[in-house]
Design goal:
The chain has helices at 32-110, 117-185; strands spanning 2-9, 15-22. With 186 residues, it is mainly alpha-helical.
Length: 186
């Protein structure tokens, strides 16, 4: 193998001057830089592995915390849904009272007796429909809350999977370094 100490090129990439010698020994013994690099390689590899191991763990922990935060947000949305339902039911109740009052006025102005006959049937039908509408609103709210709980649980599961993937990456890093160090030693 030819070892160059000095090479001088001209503008056309032709060698003008060269100082070299032939070497037949081990590359690790060739010069002090290579020898130092060969000696330091296992330590550099191990140091890089430690940093990679720590980084993989930090990434897994971060991804899990993001997923857990997303789960908390979904659970907090249930409180918002309950508040929204209360507000809607309150408005609905006011509108129902206005409707019942206007029915009373219409019944009284027509000359019919309030609370009897057709007027009573209309009032009962209105109250029944109002209860059905309230039940539907409550049902839809419960479905939305159940969906949020499922999404929160799924988010937590995704966080656990992210943490497990990070652990697998850490194991891979350690395994790769072990293999690398074994091949360096011969």
């Amino acid at each position: 193998m030819k070892i160059y100490n000095k090479i001088v090129y001209d503008i056309n990439d032709n060698i003008i001057e060269e100082d070299s010698y032939e070497y037949d020994g081990l590359i690790s013994k060739c010069d002090w830089v290579t020898a130092a690099a060969t000696t330091a390689a296992p330590y550099i590899t191990a140091g890089a592995a430690v940093m990679g191991y720590q980084q993989a763990g930090a990434i897994g922990k971060y991804n899990q915390s993001v997923a857990n935060r997303n789960a908390v947000i979904k659970e907090q949305q249930n409180e918002i849904l309950d508040s929204k339902l209360d507000l809607e039911l309150s408005r609905f109740e006011k509108e129902l009272q206005l409707l019942l009052s206007s029915q009373k006025v219409a019944t009284a102005s027509s000359g019919a007796v309030i609370g009897s006959g057709t007027a009573q049937n209309i009032r009962i039908s209105t109250l029944y429909n109002a209860e059905v509408d309230k039940d539907i609103a409550n049902y839809n709210n419960e479905i939305a809350k159940a969906r949020n709980i499922e999404e929160a649980n799924l988010s937590r599961i995704k966080g656990q999977i992210a943490k497990q993937r990070a652990r697998m990456e850490q194991i891979k890093i350690v395994s790769d370094v072990g293999t690398s160090l074994l091949t360096m030693q011969g």
